[in-house]
Specification:
By secondary structure, the chain is mostly helical. About 55% of the residues lie in helices and about 5% in strands. A two-stranded antiparallel ribbon has the order 1-2. α1 runs antiparallel to α2 (about 50-60), α2 runs parallel beside α4 (about 80-95) and α4 runs antiparallel to α5 (about 100-110). The protein is globular and about 35 Å long.
Length: about 120
């Protein structure tokens, strides 16, 4: 897989841990850099990896792309992940997107995602 970041082109192995702290995610500067990463996560089959998805979601919120974070969470194969559900809800609350919080929570409840006191 090839990732272009500005003028830098990188060829990635599907086995490369893409989104660990201090990794390629740090090269992203905004939404235009994050979208190719989401595509790469999907085509490489990493969309079901909770750790990678969590790091990507954090990166999306940190770079001001909450809509991409939510769509990534919704594409995640295991909506039963309480860890990711709480991450998305907490970050949306921090941004003041309360209607989105309710929508995410409603969708999780529809697929019988467990809930806690958060």
């Amino acid at each position: 897989h090839t990732v272009t970041n500005g003028t830098t082109v990188m060829v990635l192995s599907p086995r490369l841990p893409l989104l660990t702290r201090g990794s390629l995610l740090n090269l992203c500067k905004g939404l235009k850099d994050l979208k190719p990463f989401k595509s790469l996560i999907i085509v490489s089959g990493l969309i079901d990896n909770e750790t990678i998805i969590g790091e990507f979601i954090r990166g999306c919120f940190d770079l001001g792309a909450p809509e991409l974070a939510v769509s990534t969470f919704q594409a995640f194969g295991n909506l039963h992940s309480l860890l990711l559900q709480n991450l998305v809800i907490r970050r949306l609350c921090n941004c003041g997107f309360y209607e989105d919080v309710l929508a995410v929570y409603r969708r999780c409840r529809l697929v019988d995602c467990p809930s806690d006191d958060y």
